[in-house]
Design goal:
384 residues; alpha/beta; Aspartate Aminotransferase, domain 2; Aspartate Aminotransferase, domain 1; 2 domains; seven-stranded mixed sheet; five-stranded mixed sheet; 12 strands; 15% strand; globular
């Protein structure tokens, strides 16, 4: 059976992959080389210089394209490098519409880097389609979507965003980091570009930093591949190998992330000390029906606020956790806790954060694959 005909769980292992042609190695070798021998100028075996291409990176890119139902993938040194490449498609005077609940690093590169080059960014609640449409004008070129959003788990309707993008001649890019392709495949829903911080669920073990773009369109891929090579923010071959290894267990890890996520969300919702829990699996969660339609499950990312919503209480809770680790990032096998206002979203001005709902009392959890009973007990002792 051709790899592109396999079901998702099989594609994580076999998609885009074949044994190494030299010796039959099941896993691709780590090609730790910067350059490649040529028999005469321009005569080579497909590789010239490892900034442009590397066989280990090619294996990863083939896998990424397969699991995201894409035709092409490009790997970058980080998720931010992948975002950087997408915005470099634009020109001074162009405008971008994005969600108002956005990863702090994305907000920072938009407002502190690219805004200086004459690109204008609008941050709106993308769950409200009229808010998106009213910001579109002749200069608008790109819709940048996170769904679920970081850290309030807002759900954006990807099909609805595609309809708006198509009607107005816009590119639609979706950051699929929180869901992973196990739960959601935006290219199947009409997105032009899917971005991943592969550091998170795709790598899955908190041991590598890497980013990726996945696409179907040949011409758009060619433009982004030129930027990838010209700007040079590419991953090393060992990093590519580690993410490819992580992808091979993505499906089994995500199943446990989702199971544990549900258990933690329901535990927090039932705890009388907790004011609010953000998790798209709840029927009362905004756009829950959209999440049901475009996601296969609801993931392992949860945010919550204690009834004592002070900074001091939030810091006390995350500092008292023993099984959860207080740390940046997400998507690893271990459970992590974070305080967005002072960690992942500290680069967003306080007034803008709080207007969106990222208050000093908000705590974000990345639910790992430990025994759920241990996670619940740890949360209970920290909250109490």
């Amino acid at each position: 059976m051709a790899n592109d005909k396999l079901k998702f769980n099989s594609r994580t292992i076999h998609g885009g992959q074949q044994p190494d042609k030299a010796y039959g190695s099941v896993m691709p070798p780590v090609y730790l080389t910067s350059t490649y021998a040529q028999t005469k100028p321009g005569a080579h075996l497909g590789y010239e210089y490892s900034r442009s291409h590397n066989p280990t990176r090619t294996a990863l890119e083939n896998s990424l394209a397969s699991i995201e139902s894409g035709k092409h993938a490009l790997a970058f040194a980080s998720g931010m490098a992948a975002i950087d490449a997408v915005i470099k498609l634009l020109q001074p005077g162009d405008e971008v519409i994005s969600t108002n609940d956005l990863y702090g690093g994305t907000y920072r590169i938009f407002t502190k880097i690219f805004a200086n080059y004459g690109i204008k960014f609008h941050f709106v609640p993308m769950g409200e389609l009229d808010q998106v449409e009213k910001h579109i004008n002749k200069n608008t070129k790109l819709l940048w979507v996170e769904t679920p959003t970081n850290p309030l788990m807002q759900i954006v309707d990807i099909k609805a965003m595609k309809a708006i993008a198509k009607a107005n001649g816009l590119l639609l890019a979706v950051d699929n980091t929180f869901a992973s392709p196990y739960l959601q495949r935006p290219l199947e829903l009409g997105a032009d570009i899917v971005m991943h911080s592969a550091t998170k669920y795709l790598g899955g073990h908190s041991d590598v930093v890497l980013g990726a773009l996945v696409l179907k369109d040949d011409e758009l891929t060619e433009r982004l591949a030129f930027i990838q090579n010209a700007s040079g923010a590419v991953p090393g071959p060992l990093d590519a190998f580690l993410v490819l290894r992580g992808i091979k267990t993505l499906h089994v890890r995500m199943q446990r992330h989702c199971e544990n996520g549900r258990a933690v969300a329901e535990f927090l919702a039932a705890n009388p000390a907790i004011e609010k829990v953000y998790w798209p699996g709840f029927e009362h969660h905004p756009n829950h029906e959209v999440a049901k339609a475009q996601m296969d499950d609801f993931g392992g990312m949860i945010s919550f606020i204690h009834k004592d919503s002070t900074l001091e209480k939030a810091v006390a809770i995350v500092s008292a956790l023993k099984v959860f680790t207080l740390a940046e990032s997400l998507g690893g096998v271990e459970s992590l806790a974070g305080h967005p206002a002072s960690m992942t979203h500290a680069s967003i001005p306080k007034e803008a954060r709080e207007k969106t709902g990222i208050t000093d009392g908000l705590i974000r959890l990345s639910i790992g694959i430990e025994d759920s009973e241990d996670l619940l007990a740890d949360l209970a002792q920290a909250i109490n």
